[in-house]
Amino acid sequence: MDIPTYWKNFKQQHSEVTTDDYEAFSLGNPNDIAQQDSLAHLISDGIKTATTSAYDLYAQDESDPLPKVGEYGIILDGHQQPLCITKTVVVEIVPFLQVSAEHAYHEGEGPRTLDYWRKEHWKFFKNEYKEEHHEFNEELPCVCEVYKLVYK
Question: Per-residue pLDDT tens for 119-130?
Fold first, then answer.
């Protein structure tokens, strides 16, 4: 199903939603379809209710604004097909080393521990920053977003 039709179906079932503002996106490495599928399914299964992104890289891409409380996201799988819709409920900006164990748990990946979260996100952010010709360090700010599943 295409993204506009998916949004239309959601709105037909949720008459309280009056906006047509949403962002459609996949999570993870854009070159890793399996990772994108896995993360999308964790969200649609209600396991993954949070995500973390690199604050500094938002400034590199003006077409990708910071998330805002109340906004909707259409989560795409690795083939860019809509799988579910989320609504953002919390956005915090904290240094990498201050991301909490609770947030790591809500990310829903692996054993859901802070150690696992730091190891995996360190690799991910280091690579993202390298692609932008910057160096990642543990003091750099991260955007910690919490959302709820509202449609699938």
Answer: 999 999 999 889
